[in-house]
Amino acid sequence: MAKYDFDLFTIGAGSGGVAGSRRAASYGARVAIAESVRVGGTCVLRGCVPKKLLVYAAHYAEEFEDAAGFGWNLGARDLDWGRLIQAKDRELDRLNGIYINMLKNAGVTILDGRARLIDPHTIELGGKRYTAETVIIATGGWPSLPKIPGIEHAITSNEALDLKALPKRVVIVGGGYIAVEFAGIFRAAGSTVTQVIRADRILRGFDEDVRQFLQAEMAKKGIVLRAGEQVQSIEKTATGLRVFVRPGAAIEADVVMYATGRAPNTDGIGLEEVGVALNKKKAIAVNEWSRTTVPNIYAVGDVTDRINLTPVAIHEGRALAETLYNNNPIKPDHANVPSAVFSQPPVASVGITEAQAREWHGAVDVYRTSFRPMKHTLSGRDERIMMKLVVDRRTDRVLGCHMVGADAPEIIQGLAIALKCGATKKQFDQTIGIHPSAAEEFVTMRDKLPDPQAKAAD
Fold first, then answer.
1. Which residue, 157, 158, 140, is CA-closest to 269?
2. Measured between alpha carbons, how far is 252 from 169 in angstroms, rounded to an integer?
3. What is the mean pLDDT of residues 58-87?
4. Can 151-260 and 345-447 be said to share one CATH topology?
5. Cα(142)–Cα(267) distance, integer angstroms
6. N or C: which end of the chain has fewer CB within 10 A?
7. Cβ(71)–Cβ(380) under 8 Å?
8. d(CA 320, CA 312)
9. CATH architecture, domain 151-260
10. Region 77-89: what's the mean pLDDT?
């Protein structure tokens, strides 16, 4: 008779939990997965997928305008926001069903409800207790809100995806990728958008040229950036909301959306009670094998606050299943992970920033270009593309690729393979470009930027 009810019990059916559970089951493990909301997690239901669908919808605003430059005659047009949200919801329902079927077909037992650890091998859910040899925590993250007067009137990205009507005036608080993406969505859809950030620039952590370039492009589109300011309070009025950023200075809005950070989902599931250590941000502390301080309990995805990206969570979950159930030890590889911001225009990067390269590698060569894409020679749109390569001067190895502009995520995905293979600038130079394309600029950049010291001496 088996010692435990299951070989593996996963708490959280998002991308990381589902990937690890399916892979473990495929190797013969008896697996259960518990989810308190809907199977699919943040990415499928409250993040990447629905947001990208709204980004696609928003792009049509400019596509219609650009068509005139190519000879198209277009009549009256407007966005039916309610119909868009209904279409988005149908797609999420479809994906939720696919995820459920994938788990069932793999032989995974799905349990509905909020699971809580009683001891390292016992999980309670819905008044019943289950035992497992190994436990994976994959509960992800959740938007966090500051404690300021009137914060109950604000929404987060969760609620923004379900608005039944398009607000006329939107205030977005925050300068990270979620804030930037929703600013682009609402502005293109027709809302007046004001973005409030504490810093002087958006996208902290990205390359400085990327931050500066995107901020300028967003301003061209009519997004008003209030930099160096912080919301003090929110007040409900007869006509909407009033956002106070400093005494005597207020912004009128219909919707206030906060995107100032996400917190690991670690409360109320018994982690600390059974000895699982959390860090200062209340994320689960794990080693290079995703193991917690309790030997049979592991954690993957955003709940560990390593690299909070869906493909990373999937990679961590699968690596863990390979290690535990396929005699194939794999440590998650967090080097050279590409990322994208589906802003308008979009951003994509792989590798490290120029500042990081100078700090970690010393002398570096930087190549940067900015140009008007071919499409806009006829459309007339005032939008440019920026591309940048950061190269280790000693080894000629490309350390970072950064782009702001149309198709940036599609282009950088390919360059991520090159960086993973340790490509050099010489190999970039020896690669023949596809013409005419924007992507070919990455293999035709020849002129290095002057070193910062040289600039200062001029």
1. 140
2. 7
3. 95
4. no
5. 11
6. N
7. no
8. 12
9. 3-Layer(bba) Sandwich (3.50)
10. 96
Which residue type occupies 420? K
Q: Residue 276 and residue 254: Cα distance in Å, rounded?
A: 43
The amino acid present at 372, given as its one-letter code, is R
Whole-number pLDDT of residue 458: 47
pLDDT, tens only, 106-156: 999 999 999 999 999 999 999 999 999 999 999 999 999 999 999 999 999
Yes or no: say if 335 and 151 are a contact pair by the CB < 8 Å rule.
no
For 345-447, CATH gives 3.30.390.30
Q: Where are the domains of the chain?
A: 6-142+263-325, 151-260, 345-447
Per-residue pLDDT band for 453 (boundaries 50, 70, 90) equals confident
Q: Which residues of 290-301 are buried (b: 16+ CB within 10 A; e: fewer)?
A: bbbebeebbbbb
C-alpha gyration radius of the chain: 24
The candidate with the shortest Cα–Cα distance to 52, out of 145, 193, 157, is 157
Indicate which residues carry an active-site annotation: 435
Burial code of 308-334, b = ≥16 C-beta within 10 A, e = fewer?
bbbbbbbbbbbbbbbbbbbeeeeebee
Q: Chain-wide mean pLDDT for the chain? A: 96
Residue-level pLDDT at 1: 61
Q: Give every CB contact of residue 454 below 8 A, 6+ residues apart in sequence.
A: none
Distance between CA 133 and CA 120 in Å, rounded?
9
Superfamily covering domain 6-142+263-325: FAD/NAD(P)-binding domain (3.50.50.60)
Token pair recorded at residue 313: 């969570």
> How is residue 445 written in tokens?
């950049």
pLDDT in tens, 406-426: 999 999 999 999 999 999 999
